[in-house]
Amino acid sequence: MRSRPAVLVVRCDAKIGDSLLCLPFIRYVRQSYPEHEIHLLHHASARAIFEQCSDIDRRIEITWNPSSPLSIWHRRKLCAATFEAIEPGVSYDAAFAPRWDYDLFGPFMLWYSGAKQRIGFSSKNNLRRRLRNFGSDSLFTRTVTDVSVRHESIRAIRLLDRDIAGLSKSLPSINYRWSAGDFQCVCERLAALRIDTRRLVALAPGAAGARRQWPLDRFAELGRRYTQALGAEVILLGAPSEAQACERICAEAGVRLQNNFAGRLTLAQNAALLSLVEQFVGNDSGLSHLAAAAGCPSIVQISCHPLTGDDNHANSPLRFGPSSQYATVLQPSVPAAPECKHGCTHDDAPHCILGVTVDQVWDVVVGTRRN
Questions:
Q1: Closest CA to 95 of 76, 112, 80, 117
Q2: How far apart are CA 165 and CA 197, in angstroms?
Q3: Beta-carbon neighbour count of residue 357 at 10 Å?
Q4: DSSP output for 281-341
Q5: Exposed/middle/buried for 54, CB within 10 Å: 0-12, 13-18, 19+?
Q6: Do both 13 and 146 map to the same domain?
Q7: Exposed e or buried b per residue across 22-32, where buried means at least 16 C-beta atoms within 10 angstroms of its C-beta
Q8: What is the largest CA-CA distance in the chain?
Q9: How many domains does the chain have?
Q10: Which is a Pfam family this sequence falls into (predicted)?
Q11: Is residue 175 one of the residues assigned to a domain?
Q12: Residue 43: which domain range?
C-alpha cells in the first residue's frame, strides 16, 4: 500500500498547446494537495511536456486517439482497461478532468479511477459538450458550470474552488523545463552552422488545420523583410511534416536552407532554441505556446479568429492565446464570409486568416522591437 494518498488529473488531449496550458493547473493541484502524490493520466504524445514536470509524481500514458468517435461501450472498455493495468493498492482521494470543451474519455476515466471525489466541468457549459458528453455529468461527484470567457491556462483552476479573479489580469507562467544537455546541443548546432544568435528570429508556419495557417508566401515576404531591413538571422521551426513548407519559405525569403530546423529538433530542444530568439512569429499552434513557456521576449501570433467572433470559440485567442505578457495576437477585423460570424468554419484552406496582411504583421514586428 502507498504511504501517501493520491490525487489524479486526467488530460487525454494529444495536442502540444493544450497540454502546455494544463501545466499551471497541475501546479495549483500540487499547492492544494501538498501531502498527496499527484498522478497524471495523459496521451503519450505529450510525454516530453510532462516528464520534466516536478509537480507530477507519477504519469500514466494512453496511446489511443482521444478524439476518436467510438461508441460509449468502447470508451468504457478502454477506460476500464487503463485502470485494470495499474497495480493494486492505488486509491485516489480526488480526481479532476480539467478539459472545458467536450471530453469523450475524461468523465469515464474519473469514474473507473474509483476516486472518492470526481470533479469536472458540467455539460451545460457549451453546446458541443452538451451534445457529445450527454449524460456524463452523472459520472462526477461535483460539476462546475462556467460560461464566462477565460484563458485556458486559468479556467480549470476553478475546479479547485480557488479565486481566480486576480489571475485574469496576469496570466500564469507556463513552467516547462528543458535539460542542460538540450540547451548545450542547441548551442553547439547553432555554432556549427555559424548562425548568429544576436539577432535571432524564429518563424513557425505550421498549425493544426489549414484555416489556422497563414499563407507561406506571406511568411516568405516577412522573412525577406527581416533579413533585408533589419539584418536579422531567420530560422524556421516546425514538425517533420512541415519541413518542406519551411524549405520553400527559406528559398523564397533568401534564407539559408541550413536555417530550417523543422523536424530536426526534439520538443525540449525547440524550447531551448526559442529561449535564445528575440522574436517569434507563428500561427495559433503549439510552438507559439512553447515560445511563451521558453520566455521568448516578443511573440507575434497570427490568428484565424475574427475580432467580432465568439470569444469562447475554440480558436479564440482570449482562450488560447500565448500565456505571456510579451505576446501580441493579430486577428482579421471581420469574418471572410457570413457563415464565419462565430468563428472561421473553412478548414480546407486559409480563409479568414487572409484578412491579416504582411504589412500589419510587419508594423507590429517593428513596433515591438523598437519598444
A1: 117
A2: 39
A3: 13
A4: EEESSHHHHHHHHTT-S-EEEE--S-TTS-TTSTT-HHHHS-S-TTEEEE--SS-SSGGGS
A5: exposed
A6: yes
A7: bbbbbbbbbeb
A8: 65
A9: 2
A10: Glyco_transf_9
A11: no
A12: 6-168
H or E element that contains 92: strand 92-97
Cβ count near 170 (within 10 Å): 9
Residues 305 and 313: beta-carbon distance below 8 Å: yes
**Distance from chain centroid for Cα 159:** 20
23-52 pLDDT tens trace: 999 999 999 999 999 999 999 999 999 998
Give the end of a domain, one of 168, 201, 217. Answer: 168
Q: Count H helices and E strands in the chain, helices first.
A: 14, 11
Whose cell is 476518436? That residue is 68
pLDDT in tens, 187-231: 999 999 999 898 999 999 999 999 999 999 999 999 999 999 999
Cβ atoms within 10 Å of 1's Cβ, excluding its own: 6
CATH of the domain at 312: 3.40.50.2000
Closest CA to 288 of 371, 197, 181, 174: 174
The backbone torsions φ and ψ at residue 127, rounded to the nearest 5 degrees and listed phi first, read -65, -45
Give ∠ CA 262-263-266 in degrees, rounded to 5. Answer: 110
Residue 56 near residue 26 (C-beta atoms within 8 A): yes
139 and 191 inside one domain = no
- C-alpha–C-alpha distance, residues 360 and 231, integer Å: 20
Report the distance separating Cα 264 and Cα 270, nearest Å.
Answer: 9
Q: Name the residue type at position 177.
A: R
> H helices of the chain, where?
16-21, 23-32, 47-50, 72-84, 106-113, 127-132, 152-155, 180-192, 216-229, 243-253, 267-274, 286-293, 317-320, 358-370
Which stretches does DSSP call E strand in 103-186?
117-121, 142-144
Compute the distance between CA of residue 335 and CA of residue 305 in angstroms, rounded to an integer. 8
